[in-house]
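Pasting two entries for a bug report.
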Amino acid sequence: MRSALLAACLLLLMLPARAAGPEPALPRFEDFPTGPAHAGRNRLVLKGDDVHWRTRLRWTLGQKPDFAGHYVLASWGCGTECVMGAAVNTRTGAVVWLPGSLCCWYSDGQAAPEDVEPLRYRLDSRLLVLSGRRNEQEGDAGTHYYAIEGDRFVHLRDMPPQRGQPRG
């Protein structure tokens, strides 16, 4: 009787671990396809605080889309090891700010800055991958996955730092 009770208790302890299942796969660019690239004339509509960055944002007017079919992703430095930016919808002119500035995409000495891309994106995908710390926040280091949907970034998942990424 005791052994049956012990076995039942052990089985119950093991159930939550099995119910959780394997870790979901990381988002891939192929999982977020987009339509054909915009080939028309670029637009830019500055609203509110956008005007503070008008010189950087106007740069997108002369560029071909490079993100999610009809966006130009513009980024610029905001300090040592820091980038910020926005995606400009070339069809509507809407400015979609990145989900924060990004810093420290390498900091443990295991990767050189040129070996880690802080922003990864493609013309044929709505996925944006950020590597580093958002808004220079301690404890926020890692890889952050977003998808652009309706002129806003939707957070998908965060991954803690791997070897060669910041520890934050």
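Entry 2 (this is the one that rendered wrong in the viewer):
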Amino acid sequence: MSAAARQPGHARRFRSGPAAALAAGTAAACAARAAYAALSRRPPGGETLWTRTNHRGEPVTLLEGPALTVVGVAGSAIAPALPPRARAALAVAGAGSAAFGGYDDLAGSGSRHGFRGHLGALAHGEVTTGAVKLGGIGATGLVSAMLLGGGPADVAVNAGLVAGGANLLNLFDLRPGRALKVALASGALLAVGARGGPSRAGALPAVAGPLGAAVALLPEDLGERAMLGDAGANALGALLGVAAAASLPRPARLALLAAITGLTAASEVVSFTAVIERTPALRWLDMLGRRPVPAPPVPGRDDPPPAGPREAGASAAAASP
């Protein structure tokens, strides 16, 4: 009898444990870099379609989002130790959220923001791309939750986690690397401690692929060459939502849903960026790995010196006809 046959439990632990997750994450990281390079060489529809202006007024590409989504969804679909229902839920959540987010990326005008903006427009008969995205991601979350299974209460909570996670992570995609840092921290916490939900397999197999892709593309985001966009942020948030729904016990899922709901409601009246800027620890984390932000000019110190008599005379002579 072979050593592998004598130790079936050890073989199962390797196929589903940290070593397998590390291998899956590493493969996803390599695949994400390759996907991003391929998309950058030949952007679908042309480079202009995917180019946006960032907070500095510089051009960045949205191709990071599709690259992360394709690899994250594929990695989740073939992750070890996940039951078929969880694989299907991850695929639906990631692909559906990316599709609706991509629609808003490419077709949206950006004139409306947040639930209040899109629902307010809808109340006046205007169907914005953001409203279509919100409805589509809500439906995607419901289908994903139904695939995971459980009673009506579990389906409702899990649908909220998937849709809410997709929307919340997108709210952080306002500065370089911010959404990816939030996703990596959230995924790491899930991977370490989450077990007891419908899948009973823990979150590690579900998050290995998406987090590996996120790590690989983080330098592009921090370097302000690319950004997730709605497609990438919505997909990554939805995948984390499914991982939480599949691995957390019901009390923890309820607490997490309450936190997501509270943060989303707060975003309607409070700027996350303003809060981060006012909090030293959060600001340090937010700036970690980023390009320095130019200091604003100080009145009186950074103003040009006044012209002397000779310069003033020369200026007047130059200005005279």
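Dev reply: Rendering is fixed now. As a check, the viewer should reflect this: The first strand starts at residue 51 and ends at 53.
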